[in-house]
Amino acid sequence: MGQSSGKSVAVVGSGLGGLAAACTLAARGHDVTIIEKNPWLGGKAAVLEANGHRFDMGPTILTIPSVLRRIFGEAGLVLEERMDLVRLDPQWRCFFEDGGVLDLAQDTEAMSSNLDAFSPGSSQGYRNFLALSKRLDAISQRFFFWKPIGNVFDMFEWKNILNPAMLLDVIAMRPASTVAGTVRKHVPDHRVAQMLDHFTQYVGSSPYASPAVLCGIAHMQTGEGVWYPMGGTGAVPKALARLASELGAKVMTGVEVTAINQHPTGAVSGVTLSTGESLPFDVVVSNSDSVRTHRELLKPGKASRKFENRRSYEPACSGVVLYLGLDKRYEHIAHHDFVFSRDAEEEFDAIYHKGEPAPDPTCYLCAPAITEPGVAPPGGESLYVLVHTPYLRPHHDWKQMFPKYREVILSKLERTAGMKDIRGRIRMERALTPQDIHDRYRVLNGAIYGLASHGRLNGAFKPSNRSPDVPGLYLCGGAAHPGPGMPMVLMSGWIAGDTVDTDLRGSKPRVAAPATA
User: Fold this and answer.
1) Which residues are CB-contacts of 168 (< 8 A; sequence separation ≥ 6)?
2) Cβ-contact 478, 58 below 8 angstroms
3) Element (H, E) at 229
4) How far is CA 182 from CA 221, 306, 331, 338, 403, in A?
5) Which of 176-180, 339-343, 483-487 has the lowest mean pLDDT?
6) Which domain holds residue 415?
7) Which of 36, 250, 254, 366 is 20 to 30 A from 112, alpha carbon to alpha carbon?
């Protein structure tokens, strides 16, 4: 543990970002208190257990384990000594409306062979796309990750902007292009393009509106792989919570922060709890949604107005999640699967422009019994089904909408995923709707992924981890830099912790990227 700073830090919310921030800060010697309104730690990375079935309720795909490796490294620990990670390959299995099936393999040669068999002529375009993705990932590592970023001006040392190498990087980011446009320049087959589009779904955004730089996500995944933590992704917050406790962080559950208190100067002075008690803190790290933090936890005033006026942030998409306890494991279903819509443009137009559930949606499936049989009774499956939907609109009434949409989802699985008898195999069932997600997790309008990454120039940018308006306030989670997705949220917590430590001690930030092995 680092030398004590004598400074106290409140971490509001124990999602993956909040836990990562708490571990980083406690490892560096700060007095950390985690305050969580729910009775469990981990936020959306919660676990559901019922009738012998276990489900990860939120994120299910672990990529870029080097981020977790770095957080445990803050305490001098090796990740693999704390968690049992299993590499998954194929990373996804894809089912298409025309009956086609395509496995996404990590190895480029194996994937090229898959593509040659599935869509002759697509393999070279895929190779070229991965080469671009690798370049974009490298640019992100140099300029975007591991430091607090709020806009393009935070990314570069502008005195070097005329440096030829930097100019080439800026050009390579394709600032005038979208993900969908870039994908289709390389891979004309609409099914393969649809598969590559869905890297953008990690950030809950439309590939037709997201900047091309997000194509770098493909290399992040193929470079480090897709992993399953034994015990499910719920094992991640469990391991982080244990680490935070070992490092001396205090934990308060079942109590909500209702206000972030400020000195007359505007700087943070502490928090007020739902019990009415006020606690003093030198710093507050909010793992609550950044927009709702400013609207609901800060006093109305100049700082809140500045945040709202700086940029109009759009919520990312929401979703319907089915947790289906089946008495049968479908052998043709991989651990991770996408059951694709009949028409990508129709689907994304409905969700992101019309604000209505897609008439024929893409379904993401997680069927973990193939990797960890203990998630279900013998021979059974704990099937997680996620369908992206619009964030909540005023006219949405999901109590009325859900029964009909459940039928749309099950019909899709019967028709496209070869699960013709699924209705008769369901032995237990639970669900979350966008309204449930909004109420349960204090996210903006039920948005699972925080803020959308839309806009060719500004889409990649989220609110900075260091508030420019409220001294002593820091942000982490899916609605803060670098954005949503399990590794990015964990990284946001590390960035927030590193930035707090830098500011309190007046030291240099530790921005070097971690080792990937």
Assistant:
1) none
2) no
3) strand 226-229
4) 18, 35, 35, 21, 37
5) 176-180
6) 318-446
7) 366
